[in-house]
Amino acid sequence: MKQYLDLLQKVLKEGNKKEDRTGVGTISYFATQTRYNLENNLPIITTKEVNFKAILHELLWFIKGDTNIRYLVLNDVSIWNDWPYQNFKNSKDYKNETMSDFVNLIKKDLNFAKKYGNLGPVYGKQWRDFDGKDQLKEALKLLKENPNSRRIIISAWNPNDVDKMLLPPCHAFFQFYVIDGKLSCQLYQRSADLFLGVPFNITSYSILTILIAHHLGLKAKEFIHTLGDFHIYKNHIEQVKLQIERNPYPLPKLKIKNKYQNLEDYNFSDFELINYKHHSKIVGKVAV
Fold first, then answer.
1. Residues forming the annotated binding site?
2. How many helices (H) and strands (E) does the chain have?
3. InterPro entries given for it (predicted)?
4. Which residues contact 17 (CB under 8 A, 6 or more apart)?
C-alpha cells in the first residue's frame, strides 16, 4: 500500500493549511488519483491495524439500504456513533447521558433507536432508493445485460436530501467498468480524511468490487480512487508521521465462501480475510 503512504507524504510536504467545518483544522491538497490491483490481493492498510470487521459490517449495512446505527451497534461497530449522539445531545430528551449510555439505549430500546439512531437519508438510502430508484439493482442489471455501458453509476450525493443527512456523503459517486470479463470500480470522493477515513474507503470499495464480481461470475480487476479535498487533520499529524516510518507488509487475500441470488443476502460470516499481517494500532480522534 505504498500508494497510500505516498498520499500522506504528499499532504505533509505540499499541503495547504486550511480551516474546516469541524474547527480542528487541516493540511489539505486538492485532486489526485490512486489505483489498487484487486486480482490477487485485498488492498488494506498494513502500516497500522485497520478494523476489517467494521469495514465489512458497514458495507453490508450500505448494501441493505439501512441508515440506522442499530445494526452497527449490535455488531459492536462504533464508527457512526458520534453524529447521532451529537444530535441526541442537542435534543430536549438529553439528560447528561454518556456515549456509553447512548449506545446501550440504542441496543436495548427499539423506539429510542428509531428516534435517535437514524442518520438521515445517507449512503444506503441513496444506493437503494434515490428518489424511488434502486441504483444498486440497476447497476447489477446493467452489468449483466450491457457490461459495455458507460452508465453503470451509483451516486450517494442527492442534492434534495443533503440537508437532511447528519453527515453528507464524502464518498459520493462511483462507476463500474468491465473489460475481458474483469470488473473495475472508480470512486470519486469529495472529502477524504486520510488518516481515519481513507483506509476504510479503499478497503470497502475494493470489497464491494470483489463481491459484485464474485456475485456476477466476473473477476475483480482494479479499484481506482479519485480524491477531491484530501487532508490530514491537525490532531493526526504526529500519528501520520509515525505511520509513514513503517514498512508495509504483503497484502492479505479475501475469500467469499458462498454465492446467493441477491446481493443483500450476503452476511459477515460469508467473508474470510486471509493472512492479514499488520503493524500495531495508531489511535486518532474523529473530527465531528
1. 21, 51, 150-151, 190-193, 201, 231-233, 287
2. 10, 8
3. Thymidate_synth/dCMP_Mease, Thymidate_synth/dCMP_Mease_dom, Thymidate_synth/dCMP_Mease_sf, Thymidylate_synthase, Thymidylate_synthase_AS
4. 25, 26, 27, 28
Q: Are 46 and 279 in contact (CB under 8 A)?
A: yes
What are the chain's domains? 2-67+121-274 (3.30.572.10), 68-118 (no CATH)
SS3 state at 134 = coil
| Residue 286 grid coordinates | 474523529
Torsion over CA: 83, 100, 104, 53 (sign):
positive
Interior angle at CA 237, CA 22 and CA 249, nearest 5? 120
CB 148 within 8 Å of CB 178: yes
Q: How far is CA 46 from CA 165, 256, 276, in A?
A: 32, 21, 8
The three grid cell numbers given for residue 28, joined into one nine-digit string: 489539505
Of 244, 228, 229, the C-alpha closest to 26 is 229
pLDDT (tens digit per residue) in 11-61: 999 999 999 888 999 999 999 999 999 999 999 999 999 999 999 999 999
- Distance CA(79)–CA(58), nearest Å, equals 9
Q: Each residue of 132-165: pLDDT tens digit? A: 999 999 999 999 999 999 999 999 999 999 999 9
The residues, any chain, with a CB within 8 Å of residue 34's CB and separated by 6 or more, are 3, 4, 6, 7, 224, 225, 227
Q: How far apart are CA 18 and CA 175, in angstroms?
A: 30
- Residue type at 245? E
Counting beta carbons within 10 angstroms of the beta carbon of residue 157, is it exposed (0 to 12), middle (13 to 18) or buried (19 or more)? Answer: middle
Binding residues for dUMP: 21, 150-151, 190-193, 201, 231-233
